[in-house]
Design a protein that fits this description.
It is a single chain. The protein has a single domain (2-284), classed as 3-Layer(aba) Sandwich (Rossmann fold), CATH 3.40.50. The chain contains 11 helices and 8 strands. The chain has helices at residues 37-43, 70-79, 89-102, 115-126, 151-158, 168-179, 186-199, 203-215, 220-223, 244-252, 273-284; strands spanning 2-6, 9-16, 21-25, 48-52, 108-113, 131-137, 230-235, 257-261. An 8-stranded mixed sheet has the order 1-2-4-3-5-6-7-8, with helices on both faces. The longest helix is centred in the first third of the chain and has 14 residues, at 89-102. The radius of gyration is 17 Å and the shape is globular.
Length: 294
């Protein structure tokens, strides 16, 4: 792994494979090591895959402003009043843009998961010259009517204890037992989370990222102006970002294509990796500009 300075912060990243550049953008609280290695290996057969830690996660710059509580964020969602936040999703997209430019990559295929899908959408909106193709996985548009968390799940999350170094792995297992689909593997997840927690644990960073999501505006009007090959992937049993989020995304972006799996929740089920990677590759070939091998 390596790091560079971009957009005023330090960004930790890793590069794997050969071929056209493909940027992976992780979701809420996740680190670059939280991308399943087998999934990355499959992508790296045809792409140069760049993974990185978002601000406030992993080994990238950690901020210090005090975030709103999850309970307050839920209340803000109900009242449609956006909370205060020290940065927005657009700032996180600017981090990704800075990383690409810092690596001398003129443009890349971009794949984002959950919050990473939101960041990827902002990257395509704010820095269209950098995005050859876009894949938005288990994400949504920012319209509060779409992709809303299942209310029963929201109540359960509010009642959970705060994450600490002692309970972090077990809390992650609980969360994914609730949001993962029937193909989610708790044994594999535990091993990945033990690695992740040993590397870095930033509960307040996750809360700041969540505040950034809640404080960011609806992207729908800007998504409607995009001119980039787009693939939207979503699970039909996702309770965290419900399927309406994926449907709204594909409706908003001209020419976008939708791939939905009946056995996928808010996770990347291994039995579906081959189909996902093939769909990402097919979408990349729709790019109007040629890819540059690095």
């Amino acid at each position: 792994m390596a790091s560079l300075e971009a957009n005023g912060i330090t960004i930790e990243y890793e590069v794997q494979g050969e071929g056209p550049p493909l940027l992976l953008v992780m979701g809420l609280g996740g680190q670059l090591v939280d991308w399943p290695q087998g999934f990355v290996d499959k992508l790296a057969e045809n792409f140069t895959v760049i993974r990185f830690d978002n601000r406030d996660s992993g080994l990238s710059t950690e901020f210090s402003w005090e975030p709103a509580t999850f309970k307050d964020l839920i209340k803000a969602q109900v009242t449609r009043k956006r909370p205060d936040a020290g940065y927005l999703l657009s700032d996180m997209a600017a981090d990704a843009a800075g990383l690409l430019r810092g690596l001398d990559i003129s443009a890349a295929h971009v794949v984002g998961m959950s919050m990473g899908g939101m960041i990827s959408q902002c990257l395509a909106i704010d820095h269209p010259e950098l995005v050859l193709s876009l894949t938005s996985i288990m994400s949504t548009t920012g319209n509060p009517k779409d992709g809303r968390i299942d209310p029963k799940l929201g109540i359960k999350i509010v009642r959970r204890p705060e994450t600490t170094i002692d309970n972090a792995v077990e809390e992650s297992l609980w969360m994914f037992s609730e949001i993962g689909g029937p193909l989610w593997d708790p044994i594999v997840h535990r091993a990945r989370q033990e690695e992740s927690v040993a590397r870095s644990l930033r509960p307040k960073g996750t809360a700041r990222q969540l505040a950034a999501i809640s404080a960011s505006p609806d992207r729908t009007p800007d998504l409607q102006q995009l001119n980039v090959p787009t693939l939207v992937i979503h699970g039909l049993v996702d309770p965290l970002v419900t399927p309406s989020g994926g449907i709204a995304t594909v409706k908003a972006i001209p020419g976008a294509r939708l791939l939905m799996f009946p056995d996928m929740g808010h996770d990347l089920p291994e039995p579906r990796w081959d189909e996902m990677v093939e769909a990402i590759s097919v979408n990349s070939r729709r790019a109007k500009r040629p890819s540059i091998t690095i």
